[in-house]
Amino acid sequence: MIFLNELFSQPRDKEIAGFVKVVLPQVLIKTVYEKNFIVQEAKKSMQGAVKSCTFPETIDVLVEGCLAKNLTLAELSIGYLATLV
Fold this sequence. Notes:
The chain is mainly α. 74% of the residues lie in helices and 0% in strands. 26% of the residues are buried.
């Protein structure tokens, strides 16, 4: 999570869009994990991703999160989408 936080905190090119599509869903799931340290790092990573990785793949991941059965995950996804837009 710390690596991803550092990775997403810098502006990124379209070259990592495939990486984002694979990794970001797992980071989004970790935002509702039971360990507080992991949750905090995952949230920082997601905040960085929505600021620096404005790709269609990022939007796809967040839309899928909005459809999650976990209400907390869906609410966080909506918040990240609002930040992205």
